[in-house]
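In practice, a research group might receive sequence data for several interacting partners and want a quick structural hypothesis before committing to experiments. The following worked case mirrors that situation: the sequences arrive first, and a predicted assembly follows.
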Amino acid sequence: MSETPKISADDVAHLASLARIDIPADRLGYYAEQLEVILGAVAKVSEVAGDDVPATSHPQPLTNVFREDIVQPSLTAQQALSGAPSVEDERFRVPRILDEEQ
Amino acid sequence: MADLIHKTAAELAAVVASGEASAVEVAQAHLNRIGAVDGAVHAFLHVDTDGALAAAAAVDAKRAAGDKLGPLAGVPLGLKDVMCMKDIPTTCGSKILEGWRPPYDATVTARLKAAGIVILGKTNMDEFAMGSSTEHSAYGPTHNPWDLERIPGGSGGGSSACLAAFEAPLSIGTDTGGSIRQPAAVTATVGVKPTYGAVSRYGLIALASSLDQAGPCARTVLDAAMLHQVIAGYDPHDSTSLTDPVADMVSAAGTRDLTGMKIGVVKELGGEGYQSGVRQRFTEALEILSGLGAEIIEVSCPHFDYALAAYYLILPSECSSNLAKFDGMRYGVRAGDDGESSVEQVMARTRAAGFGEEVTRRIILGTYALSAGYYDAYYGSAQKIRTLIQRDFDDAFARVDVLVSPTAPTTAFKLGEKLDDPLAMYLNDIATIPANLAGTPGMSLPIGLAPEDNLPVGIQIMAPARKDERMYAVGGALEAALLARWGAPILTQARAL
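A structural hypothesis for the assembly, expressed as tokens:
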């Protein structure tokens, strides 16, 4: 990764759609420019570590921390729904998920 | 009683325990101070006057009943708005959570309440803890009490400024890349990032889960140690919580002699890019440490030069995933739900309306770094650097007991100065990030003012994982020596508000 990748406004539009953020069209170029600068500065990560270096995803070597499968006190449905923008019949009410023809 | 607000937390606890003043009087004095100065400082996003006075009254009732009080009972505190507090607005500095009231307490919040600590309110922060200046707060920046035109550090600028402005003697911060330590450095306060896993993350709104760590902020090393003791310890609600017993930080903070202590100066953290007054005060601090009996040794951590680059891939990657839950469906704000649009469209509108520019930038960057075709080159390589940085720490700690560096490369810069240059902003964390990547603890402690601008400078003390008490020992000894030299706490020199 010696050369810095080029990021276009279209690339940002694609990433924004993956990330579900409706970035206005006139701001895409602004983010593209900044993303390119930041990527240029961080690209050096590929210069240093060879194949023999293992990856570390987490600072503490912990795996599969489980508890006994016993029912514990938790939030009531009313508490869990208390911050919801829209509620119906003790459920989160959301906009339509499937297109009508589906 | 006069001057309650200038007392340390340890002193206030003694005042309450002895009955010299009631916890309600202590709380009221601090609430009055907030009323008088927070218009200018803006350290708080929400002040919970009724809740604070009720908590204080409960401490007074307990004392009147003859019950034993905890070591910090009746002492007021500012809680960073990243921590959930039941029924109290918790925004994380973001519009997307405006008006949200959590249905539960974070473990840290619950422990503070159980200890009789009086939570005054929620402190300001960069949105979702992304930033080094609080300028990315959706509710406007916090101002540094040393100079109101300057930044108080970030992301925990509200938590540092409330201490320096004498609005609270204690606060809670969270540190993902320096958000406790850098604000402490630029306000002449004490901030500690404990070992990863030492303080529960349950109810801490996650930025980057493998890096986030909550910790104590205070005006003295002893106060930080006392607060550390309250919030640390195993929590079954957090699967990354350490099961180790909490060491005696308070006793360690009483250390005054460093004979036999080996202190490593990290070659890569200093020199070029560090302000001259920062280097000058740091060099003087090394002389003081040497005078206290410590042996000063230069050590090299060669991969620290790659820490910032690795961090700005790992953090955006984790944050793009963690922040996916803010979609306007289950809590917070929902935008553009016109009854016609699909759930995806409403989510995208909600997130565009609810997230600020820095959050958007990092989510896009993280989405890119995790994309097919780029994953190995970016995220994979960054994780390997994390291994190399851990090895650098291991090698260094095989030779020395603690490591030191300046906490931040410069003193507090002016509000607005770096807002349009994300890379320049990111460089503030260059010395603090390695400890987050390795999960090791770090403390920032004030060591004087830079001669060229009369603004605070901090020293960073880093210890091996699970050896947090060593930072309190070195910090306690250095603080006492500096106090003897100065004749008065450094914050007495801060601009009078």
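Before designing any experiment, note the following. Chain B has a mean pLDDT of 97. The CA atoms of residues 109 and 310 of chain B lie 32 Å apart.
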